């Protein structure tokens, strides 16, 4: 079993793993979120208020607590966005969706698999966290009430929420990262609310907004930025959305945490991805000198159409590897099979001094 336990100011993982090779966890037996107990870093290491602090009451009777968001200089927010997203990925068990393995993902996406809910114990563990994401939005109290009613229904406590919570996850990350004012980031229960704000920022009518919207490939993509795709209606550019701003739309955004230029991949973390906060690996190509994600041929109905660029100085491309969550892990891993995320070779022991 893989287990996190806090010891002083450090976070231990058993069996231990390499800093830059965390993603192989997904390939190890017994390493799923369902079989593991994951914690968060102590505040001295990463000062974040857990989302569960934003709710009160037990599962089925939860309500939102009124709590302020953090407001910080824009220059300080980029690294916090990455570090907070990575910590939440760890809390959900480090799940990976690898779109560089096109043939493996093809059948799943074509079938539009409805992924099953979580076992009750795991759903119970994660429920206050997801409720806390909702609570960071203006509509969160109502969404939590809706979920309480769903839990009272015939399916009881399971891993499916009554409403998609990916936008709530993004909203909470920005709330904790320092974009607490709505003029900086328009938190909401749907991604289009802050996509539209980023478009207004690009057009000059939202001067305080933290993000500005660009077509994918027009600007350098960096950790802390976001990549967004459309679901319904289908958008293929910022101009497509600009013509319908203010109207509801099904969209999805992920937070970029690493740009792997040598291997032409972009790593991004999103919420409510297969019932979890998951890391996505996107294949990428160069458009001039800019690395941009490939719009997968089997996902043409949900194209990536907007790059939300944070209006602050960029940080290093491998910010994922340098995040506190990664650095706090012990640095040894024995693994038995190749994992596509990092191109590992079989039956090798990896060690790295912490």
Number of domains: 2
Structural class, by secondary structure, is alpha+beta
Query: Regions with pLDDT < 50 over 5+ consecutive residues?
Result: 1-37, 104-108, 330-354
User: What is the overall silhouette?
Assistant: globular
Give the N-terminus to C-terminus distance in angstroms: 23 Å
Produce a short descriptive summary.
This protein has 354 residues and is α+β, with helices and mostly antiparallel strands. 25% of the residues lie in helices and 20% in strands. The protein is globular and about 55 Å long.
Structure description:
25% of the residues lie in helices and 20% in strands. The protein has 354 residues and is an alpha+beta fold. It has 2 domains: 1-45 and 328-354, no CATH class; 46-327, no CATH class. Strands 5, 6, 7, 8, 9, 10, 11 and 12 form an 8-stranded mixed β-sheet that branches. Helix 1 packs across helix 5. The protein is globular. Residues 1-37, 104-108 and 330-354 have low confidence and may be disordered.
């Amino acid at each position: 079993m893989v287990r996190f336990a806090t010891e002083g100011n450090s976070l231990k993982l058993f069996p231990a793993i390499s800093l830059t090779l965390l993603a192989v966890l997904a390939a190890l037996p017994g390493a799923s979120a369902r079989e593991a107990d994951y914690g968060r870093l102590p505040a001295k290491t990463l000062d974040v208020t857990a989302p569960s602090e934003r709710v009160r009451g037990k599962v089925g009777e939860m309500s939102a607590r009124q709590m302020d968001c953090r407001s910080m200089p824009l220059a300080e927010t980029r690294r916090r966005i990455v570090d907070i997203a990575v910590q939440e990925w760890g809390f959900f068990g480090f799940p990976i969706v690898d779109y560089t393995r096109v043939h493996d993902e093809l059948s799943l996406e074509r079938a539009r698999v409805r992924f099953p809910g979580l076992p009750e114990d795991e759903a119970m563990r994660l429920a206050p966290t997801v409720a806390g994401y909702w609570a960071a939005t203006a509509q969160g109290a109502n969404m939590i009430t809706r979920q309480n009613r769903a839990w009272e229904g015939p399916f009881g406590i399971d891993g499916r929420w009554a409403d998609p919570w990916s936008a709530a996850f993004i909203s909470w990350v920005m709330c904790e990262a320092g974009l607490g004012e709505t003029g900086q980031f328009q938190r909401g229960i749907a991604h289009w609310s802050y996509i539209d704000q980023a478009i207004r920022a690009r057009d000059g009518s939202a001067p305080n907004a933290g993000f500005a919207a660009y077509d994918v490939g027009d600007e350098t993509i960096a950790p802390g930025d976001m990549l967004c795709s459309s679901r319904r209606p289908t958008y293929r550019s910022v101009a497509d959305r600009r013509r319908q701003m203010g109207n509801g739309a099904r969209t999805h955004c992920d937070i970029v945490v690493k740009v792997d230029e040598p291997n032409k991949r972009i790593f991004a973390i999103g919420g409510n991805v297969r019932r979890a906060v998951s890391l996505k690996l996107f294949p990428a190509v160069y458009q001039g000198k800019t690395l941009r994600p490939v719009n997968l041929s089997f996902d043409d109905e949900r194209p990536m159409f907007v790059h939300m660029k944070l209006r602050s100085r960029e940080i290093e491309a491998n910010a994922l590897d340098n995040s506190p969550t990664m650095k706090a892990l012990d640095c040894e891993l024995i693994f038995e099979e190749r994992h596509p995320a990092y191109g590992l070779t079989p039956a090798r022991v990896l060690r790295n001094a912490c």
